[in-house]
Amino acid sequence: MALIDRQSGLFTDHYELTMAQGYYLSGMKDTPARFDYFFRKAPFKGSYVVFAGLQNLMEMLGNFIYDEEACEFLNSRGFNPEFVNFLSRLRFSGDVWSAAEGEIVFPYEPVLSVGGTIIECQLIESMLLNILNFESLIATKASRVKHAAGDKEFIDFGLRRAQGTGAIQASRAAVIGGASGTSNMLAAYQYGLESTGTQAHSWIQSFGSELTAFREFANAFPDRCVLLVDTYNTLGTGVPNAIKVAQEMEERGHRLKGIRLDSGDLAYLSKQARKMLDDAGLEYIRIIASNQLDEYVIRSLKEQDAPIDAFGVGTNLITGRDDAALDGVYKLVFSNGKDRLKISDNIEKMILPGKKRVFRFSDRNGNFYADGVSLNSENELDIICHPFHSEKCSDISNFKREEIVMQVMRKGETLISFKNPYEIAAFAGERIKRLPIEHKRFEFPHIYKVGISRKLIERRDSLIREIRKDM
Amino acid sequence: MALIDRQSGLFTDHYELTMAQGYYLSGMKDTPARFDYFFRKAPFKGSYVVFAGLQNLMEMLGNFIYDEEACEFLNSRGFNPEFVNFLSRLRFSGDVWSAAEGEIVFPYEPVLSVGGTIIECQLIESMLLNILNFESLIATKASRVKHAAGDKEFIDFGLRRAQGTGAIQASRAAVIGGASGTSNMLAAYQYGLESTGTQAHSWIQSFGSELTAFREFANAFPDRCVLLVDTYNTLGTGVPNAIKVAQEMEERGHRLKGIRLDSGDLAYLSKQARKMLDDAGLEYIRIIASNQLDEYVIRSLKEQDAPIDAFGVGTNLITGRDDAALDGVYKLVFSNGKDRLKISDNIEKMILPGKKRVFRFSDRNGNFYADGVSLNSENELDIICHPFHSEKCSDISNFKREEIVMQVMRKGETLISFKNPYEIAAFAGERIKRLPIEHKRFEFPHIYKVGISRKLIERRDSLIREIRKDM
């Protein structure tokens, strides 16, 4: 099911429609074009991005329509009736090249490219950016949490603080990045995610006492009972009452699965709770922690040897705090038979013109060493150079190479089969394992090398000269 | 149209369903309960929140169902079949009391309350928090941008960096907070928002030269032409070419509406561009600026007397940067005939028990002075006290009072008529005008007084003693 069932064609910025009408009225409706999606900076002061959103994007492309109501709306907003009539018959029938969903990608490389008529390429821009920027942001955040959590499990608890219905995409992206499941039932339903959840403070409050509340819950869920122990006093009543109920459950042949800590000093409380549980012979009871967690807090808890078995991560995961957005852009690189460039006073805002290929180079141990971007027309790629300091080059002829951006859609037809989020997560996990650790540390990570071919540099420089001459 | 057409009942956390099943199996399915929605901290280091999301919430409550597919899914996830069958017949038939959408609200006051069976109140928690937290966050951010922009217009340009489909709600909330329109066509369609947009760099790039691109656009849109002047060199070619095209348009009896600056130093460039336009006798051409704007940048531009007529605000507005989420919570305050409390080691995390009323007190000039919360059973409210330092009290008997939280839904039936977002924005604007300026400044705003009645303090303290005794 597509993210937006109806009016998908309206999931765009006004200016895309204005430009499309302009192209239509200028007789350019069939002009071929190509756009690249890329980003200039990895979020969270990191070095990499876990690419996500491809499936949702492709399903939206397959469902991209202007139905009668959308057309009426556009007419009412003053769009040209002939153009609106053209839109009513428009379907996305372009080509898409893309990195696999779950791939680890880096600044400045064209992660995804779209080819088609300039009108269809333009109209889908805002939707494409919205989906890829957001889902990649959250998958990347999740992969950082996973890095901190190591062999411990973490679960997305973010629905209540997520940015509206974006929560549904976010929970999927969290799983791609490494969450084992989510609290979000709608995301679980739509994407086949594992879901989990036990009780809130309101459950505890709504009974006469904490002990009664625990007993009632244990009766209702004898085999998957996790008790929230911090409603009144974690160590004073919560853990002792949980131990009492666990012992009663044992007598009935059941086992309490876990306790959850949701406030206070999680390092201190988890150690004390673990000791109390162990002293009562209840070593099997797991400790789950939540409350304002992120990759840094989890790292700190692990450094303190806090005996926490699973983390529930909410707001900071699901909103990608502290980076609310990935800065991905979608730039015209080719139209009407010509490579295109936007030049800028800021050289780092320059783009790579033309149709290109993206390769990854790995060392003999399989570790990722660098990525390289070349022109489609090039046969070999042995030297890659820094995109802005073209005197800095590397010989990568001895490295193993693989092409990481492949065609996934041809004339609107999907060429790949979609994987479920856990399969994508497994792929992302394998890939990230091959990224050397110095690129994954949280503080000042080593920048991963992305180079471009000498031919691409020459192409870019000659286009710059051409444009400057015309100015 | 509701935010989520189908499976709205699944837009919830797993634990809400677990608890609901627990209540069902414990014979508590008809237990009456009441929950309060409130937040503890205003976002953006501010003092207030523009309350938004009520209409979307109420439409979702009206549409809250578990259809056959949802029930099948819940059965497949191990929920009790009898309970799932109960859900298939469940409709939300509770009561809702709420501040008006667009009202200015403050920490610790119950902005919205829900009454009904404990099951229905619990199941809607995650959805309610998701909608109110997010829409209020963005409306609040927009009101700050509006405060900075003053009499200048600003427009939401955020779709491409918004958090997925949450963009649609966010654009509506941005208008409630003060945006004059949006680039987001789907939000414009769904909520009747003004939409606007002209061209991107790709339009300029796709023609042989900037001048040709400008001319083609002016031909296609003679009466609403805004030209993007920074693709190659803003002052060197962009503005001169725009002037040339504006003069050609004048000869044909049209007027260029504006130019847009999207990079570089906006203060410097807008001043230079203004001078160039004025020197050419084109005083009527507006200057629109975009690129990483927020309330602080806009304030700085205005301090520098940058001659900018309208601001396009994107990422920072639509994601609520730097606060990704409002920390609103939904807490049980009454169930089964008893007022309820969650006590905590942290006194500021304590809640206000029972059914309550919320009043606003204004001085003789109509300026908001304080809010007060009392028990439903109280007849008069002349003294309000600090919620955590109950020795600090104020006599508010001489202030004008109004009740700001009113019933909006009875037994599932909506009691109010919905206003369009511009009407809500007008209301929000009037209310925020009555909030003294010291509460609106960006740096260390004065905290707005929210007090509680002495009877409410007594009620809370006696409940604390009761709970402590039972522990």
Question: How would you characterize the overall build of this protein?
Answer:
The structure is a homodimer of 471-residue chains. Chain A is an alpha/beta fold. Chain A is built from 16 helices and 21 strands. In chain A, the strands form five sheets. Chain A has a seven-stranded antiparallel beta sheet. Chain A has a six-stranded parallel beta sheet with strand order 7-6-11-10-9-8. In chain A, strand 12 and strand 13 form a beta hairpin. In chain A, helix 6 runs parallel beside helix 13 and helix 11 packs parallel to helix 12. Chain A is globular, with a radius of gyration of 26 Å. In chain A, 56% of the residues are buried.
User: Largest interface, with Cβ-Cβ < 8 Å?
Assistant: A-B, 108 and 108 residues
* Count of beta strands of chain A: 21
Helix content of chain A: 25-40%
Spatial extent as radius of gyration of chain A: 26 Å
Q: Termini separation of chain A (Å)? A: 48 Å
- What spatial form of chain A do the alpha-carbon principal axes imply? globular
Counting DSSP H or I runs of 4 or more residues, the number of helices of chain A is: 16
Strand order of the largest sheet of chain A: 13-12-1-5-3-19-20
Can you give the mean pLDDT of chain A?
A: 95
Name the beta content range of chain A: 15-25%
Instruction: Give the class of chain A from helix and strand content and strand pairing.
Output: alpha/beta
Oligomer: homodimer
Give start-end ranges of low-pLDDT stretches of chain A: none
Task: Give a short account of the largest sheet of chain A.
Answer: 7 strands, antiparallel
